[in-house]
């Protein structure tokens, strides 16, 4: 009595590929060749070795990614330093307002003179940081053509 005519033999699962990759090849590498191959694969940033090999064979564009830890560390610290500069700027504005609100004009001017000297030193330091950053970018971050 079971007369179930199935129109679709595949009930579920993954749909079959139209052109599956069924041809396989095997190569042998020496220890030195394998080390060089592994280095190329790791620097390519690809996660699947089969895709990397296919790209090498058919001369597709292979990108290599080099991460310079020193550059990243410099960038992180420079970003932190700029955050501190912004905080100093905010504090500077608050101090000027407080000085004029709580002290006489003459006393506030004396304190502002001292603050102005410190600000000049900070400006010189900032110019030095900008110069060093420019030198760092030229030496380490610019692509050599």
Keywords:
mainly alpha; 4 helices; single chain; 145 residues; 2 domains; elongated
Note the topology.
Elements: H1 31-44, H2 49-57, H3 69-102, H4 105-141
Helix pairs in contact: 3-4
* Share in β-strands: under 5%
Oligomer: single chain
User: Helices and strands, in N-to-C order?
Assistant: HHHH
Count of DSSP strands: 0
Query: Helix/strand/pairing class, anyone?
Result: mainly alpha
Shape: elongated
Largest sheet data: none
Instruction: Supply the number of structural domains.
Output: 2
Number of helices: 4
Mean pLDDT: 80
Instruction: Give the C-alpha Rg.
Output: 32 Å
> What share of residues is helical?
55-70%
Task: Give the terminus-to-terminus CA distance.
Answer: 78 Å
Low-pLDDT segments: none
Plain-language structure description:
Helices cover 65% and strands 0% of the residues. The protein has 145 residues and is an all-alpha fold. It folds into two domains: 41 residues, no CATH class; 73 residues. α3 packs antiparallel against α4. The protein is elongated, with a radius of gyration of 32 Å. The termini are far apart.
Question: Summed up, what is this model?
Answer:
With 145 residues, the chain is mostly helical. The longest helix has 37 residues.
């Amino acid at each position: 009595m079971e007369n179930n005519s199935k129109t679709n033999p595949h009930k579920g699962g993954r749909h079959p590929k139209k052109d599956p990759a069924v041809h396989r090849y095997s190569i042998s590498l020496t220890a030195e060749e394998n080390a060089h191959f592994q280095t190329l694969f790791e620097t390519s940033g690809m996660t699947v070795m089969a895709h990397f090999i296919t790209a090498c064979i058919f001369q597709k564009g292979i990108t290599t990614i080099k991460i310079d830890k020193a550059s990243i560390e410099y960038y992180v610290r420079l970003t932190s330093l700029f955050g501190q500069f912004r905080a100093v700027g905010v504090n500077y504005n608050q101090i000027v307002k407080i000085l004029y609100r709580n002290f006489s004009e003459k006393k506030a001017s004396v304190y502002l003179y001292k603050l102005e000297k410190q600000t000049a030193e900070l400006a010189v330091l900032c110019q030095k940081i900008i110069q060093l950053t420019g030198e760092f970018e030229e030496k380490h971050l610019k692509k050599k053509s």
